[in-house]
Amino acid sequence: MLHNIIAIIAISFIVVGGLWGIGSLLNAPQEKNIQKSNDSILLIAQNNAFNQTNPTLYVNASQPTRLIILNKDFVKHDFISDELGINTAYLTTEQDFVTGIASNKTGNYTYYCSFHPEMKGEIVIK
């Protein structure tokens, strides 16, 4: 009897996990639902990269720029720039985070994902 209960619980977990996975694939986050403009940057975390190439972000000094981070992956990501004081905390699948880059100091600043060392790039404030 105990073995039957354990088997039923195990099968239930497999079925629920499979349904969750299929639901995540069918209901992927929609980047078109996020408002974008000329003074904003959208970074999509997916396949252990931001926007596939970890691009350099160019921002004008003394002109606030909205930064939107969207996680389209099945794993957690975050976006951190220690020098600029940006930390999204952990973003799960389909979660987004909106912040701003505003600095009057020109220079090059690093951004990265603390989970995936290959996810890093530069923010250039000019």
Q: Layout of helices and strands, plus pairs?
A:
Layout: H1 2-26, E1 40-46, E2 49-50, E3 57-59, E4 65-71, E5 80-81, E6 86-87, E7 96-101, E8 107-112, E9 120-125
Parallel strand pairs: 1-4, 3-9
Antiparallel strand pairs: 1-2, 4-7, 5-6, 8-9
Question: What would your notes on this structure say?
Answer:
About 20% of the residues lie in helices and about 35% in strands. It has about 130 residues and is of the alpha/beta class. The strands form three sheets. Strands 2-1-4-7 form a four-stranded mixed beta sheet, with no helix packed on it. Strands 3-9-8 form a three-stranded mixed beta sheet, with no helix packed on it. The longest helix is centred in the N-terminal third of the chain and has 25 residues, at about 1-25. The radius of gyration is 19 Å and the shape is elongated.
Note the total helix count.
1
β-strand amount: 25-35%
**Gross geometry:** elongated
Return the average pLDDT rounded to an integer: 83
Radius of gyration: 19 Å
Low-confidence stretches: 28-36
Question: Which class of secondary structure composition applies to the elements?
Answer: alpha/beta
- Let me know the number of strands: 9
Distance between the termini: 70 Å
Oligomer: single chain
Helix content range of the residues, please? 10-25%
